[in-house]
Amino acid sequence: MAWPEWTEEHQQLRRTVRDYVERELAPHAAEWDANQSFPKQIFRDLAELGMFGIRFDPEYGGMGLDWWYSACWIEELMRCRNSGVAMSLLVNTDMATPIIDEIGTAEQKEEFLAPVIAGDKISALGVTEPNCGSDVAAIQTTARKDGSDYIINGQKTYITNGSFADFITLAVRTGDPGMGGISLVLFPTDTPGFTVGRKLDKLGTRSVDSCELHFQDCRIPQRNLLGHENMGFLYIMQNFQGERLTAALMATAGMDIQMKSAIKYGKEREAFGRPIMSMQLWKYRMAEHTASLEAARALTYRATEVINTSEDPLEIARWVTMAKLHAGELAQKVVYDCQQMYGGYGYIEEYDITRAFRDTRLITIGGGTTEIMQKLLAKLQGW
Question: For the whole model, what pTM was predicted?
Answer without folding.
Answer: 0.95
